[in-house]
Amino acid sequence: MDYSSIIKSKEYNFLNINEHLGKHVILLGLAGSYSYGTNNENSDIDVRGIALNRKSDLIGMTEFEQYVDDHTDTVIYSFNKIISLLLSCNPNTVELLGLNSEHYLFLNEIGQELLRNSSLFLSKRAIQSFGGYADAQLRRLQNALARDSYSQSEKEQHIYNSIKNAMYDFKKRYKKFEHGAVVLYVDKSGNPDFDTEIFMDVNLTHYPLRDYKSMWNEMNNIVKDYDKIGKRNRKKDDNHLNKHAMHLVRLFMMAIDILEKGEINTYRKKEQELLLSIRRGEYQKEDGTFREEFYDIVADYEKKLDYAAEHTVLPDEPDMKKVQEFVMAVNEKVVRDEI
Predict the structure, then answer these.
(1) What single string gives the DSSP state of each residue in 197-240?
(2) Which of 92, 115, 218, 305 is the most buried (most CB within 10 A)?
């Protein structure tokens, strides 16, 4: 199939007429299931791309970070923003540098130069970025299964664990509890509908209201997510669960390639059948939970990732001097009207 014909249809006309896109686009590629080789008859076409920042973005007063077209599931990142995301080894953007050749819908000279320099962005940061995304996928599975198959007390404990995990991240983003504490615990409930319930002891002084509001909203959203139990569409949700399970394993595969080989391999030809079998629900039991074999696969990939992380020859951090030289060379051409 000639995938490049996709962007020639009328619904993608924004690529030509938007002031940030048009001649500024350097790369367009397929994303999602088609780029991984795990698409089926229900898969949507997702497009991701990169557009150079304009001269006015670089030395003038305009700004551009990304363009999103929800109708076609298209996201175009600015050159400067994609560089920042690539430096953090963000899985959703790193994969754009490792597509099969036929999955690039458009690629000009600058786009090809970016692909040739893809190794500049690979570092041990991939351990945390890919591992964090994989952990999030696993948590989605656990959360969904907890809603369906656990007793009320088990569900409450699971909610507690999820909130506690979220609170570890609070330390990075909000003011620390220097003059007090927020303590969560599970205890016997006085509510006739509950056996146990999460309680909290709060002792804070001189604490920023907005930080507390943001933390409270995050905890509240976790609880609300579990309260949607009565609205579950089993068939639809099982499809989502199996897709999450597949992506969990795929993230491990990509991370191991990056750490062991220094390669970005988005299309998983060798493991395609395994990934598709997970997506088809072949590792899911009738009650919606997953067979032990699936968790054995996950555990095996976790061990492989740990080994790859310990023995990788990738640097701790990207070579920022070389990255800056590359970015400056590209943006200088923009400023000089050479592109």
Answers:
(1) EEEEEEE-SS--HHHHHHHHHHHHHHHHHHGGGGG--HHHHHHH
(2) 305
Cα–chain-centroid distance for residue 23?
Answer: 29
What is the pLDDT at residue 230? Answer: 45
- Provide the angle, in degrees to the nearest 10, between the axes of the packed helices 320-335 and 79-87: 170
DSSP code string of 73-123:
TEEEEEHHHHHHHHHTT-HHHHGGGS--GGGEEEE-HHHHHHHHTGGGG-S
Distance CA 14, CA 7 (A): 10
What are the average pLDDT values for consecutive 10-residue runs of the chain, which has 339 residues?
88 96 97 95 93 97 96 97 96 96 97 98 94 79 66 79 74 68 90 91 89 88 68 64 92 96 97 97 88 92 94 96 98 94
Q: Residue type for 83, please?
A: I
